[in-house]
Amino acid sequence: MAEISVLMPVYNGMPYLVDAVNSILSQTIQNFNFLIINDGSTDETKNYLNQLNDPRINVIHQSNRGQGAAKNAGLDLCQTEFVAMMDADDASFPTRLEKQWNFLSQHQEVGMVGTKIVYFTTRGRKGFSPPLPCDHKTIYADLLRGEHAICQASLMCRTTILKKVGGFRIDGSGEDLDMWLRMGEVSSLANLDKVLLGVRLHFSSVNVRHQVEIRARYAHSLHSAKRRAEGQPELSYPEFLFLYRARSFWQRLAETVDIYSHSQYRQALVEILDNNLVRGYTRLAWAALCSPPRSIQRISRALRRYRKI
User: Fold this and answer.
1) Which pLDDT value is given to residue 309?
2) What CA–CA distances, in Å, run from 40 to 8, 46, 220?
3) What is the C-alpha to C-alpha distance for residues 42 and 100, in angstroms, rounded to an integer?
4) Are 174 and 217 in contact (CB under 8 A)?
5) Any residues with CB less than 8 A from the CB of 147 and at least 6 apart, and which?
6) What pTM does this model have?
7) What is the distance of C-alpha 106 from the center of its chain?
8) What is the pLDDT of residue 263?
9) Which residue of 1, 217, 220, 239 has the fewest C-beta atoms within 10 A of its own C-beta?
């Protein structure tokens, strides 16, 4: 019997979906269930998924309900000890599932383990690997500061713990941070110190309006974690959103600029990896000027990584 389920939601995943699926089917561990939740795609995703012929694959088609709802639909079907996450435009390295399964089998205190990642473009050019922490204390502290400490598509979780904390409480985007924080409250978190996932960068993934929604969801997740730690009841999202939108003009302006800076940073990475060096580095400098605190944060995280080497 399989011990691992791989859970992958997809919405309009073509043409990158093919690489994502093949990267899972090519794992060194072959005994797993592959749950693919088609969240109301309107491109060729449904046709591609329907022609897949592998007994490990279970495709569920549903109307568009959002990332969190799609993941919960798959999680409800998971009966295995472990569940691994996957995004429809990324690529897992061949030994990813094997190494994570071995790690969780040997570290019973860890409820969720990710991996280091490397960015790559639609042309297959690989870039740098961001300095993600590996120990629980640093990961959880970074999450509480809203810093990048985990990659959702690289995770493998203990299914019972993920279900115990309620799975994904947010139906749409921004569902990940809330889940990570709740998992970290009841078990240890970890990242393997090895690159085992390629995260695809492309211009269609850089959406400022989308980031505004995610930022609000992240803010609510952090606010909820703080209230849980203080023994206070959480605010509903509408209640929190009322307070969130009532912030001062300068706070809202600072967040808008930071979101814009982050978008420029991601676009710069795509251009640099696609060898548009002048445009890419110019945009990178502009992103740094727009949000000096974000740039300082990236530099300090990189320095922290090199001090540990």
Assistant:
1) 46
2) 14, 9, 27
3) 34
4) yes
5) 297, 301
6) 0.86
7) 24
8) 76
9) 1
Tokens coding 4: 């691992």
Burial class (CB in 10 A: 0-12, 13-18, 19+), 176: buried
Residue from 218, 74, 87, 92 nearest 153 by CA:
87
According to CATH, what is the number of the domain 4-202? 3.90.550.10
- Taking the chain (309 residues) in runs of 10, the rounded mean pLDDT of each run is 90 94 96 96 96 95 93 94 95 97 96 94 75 94 92 96 94 89 97 95 60 88 95 94 88 79 76 77 80 62 53
- Write the CB contacts of 206 (distance below 8 Å, at least 6 apart in sequence): 263, 266, 267, 270
d(CA 57, CA 59): 6
* Residue 132 · residue 191 · CB < 8 Å: yes
Task: Report how far apart, in Å, the C-alpha atoms of 249 and of each of 87, 245, 254, 256, 261 are.
Answer: 36, 10, 9, 11, 18
- The beta strands (E) that lie in the chain are given as 4-10, 32-39, 57-62, 82-85, 91-92, 110-121, 156-158, 188-201
Q: CA 129 from chain center: how many Å?
A: 15
How is residue 290 written in tokens?
């727009």
Structure tokens at 35: 């749950």
- Within the chain, all domains assigned CATH 3.90.550.10 are found at 4-202
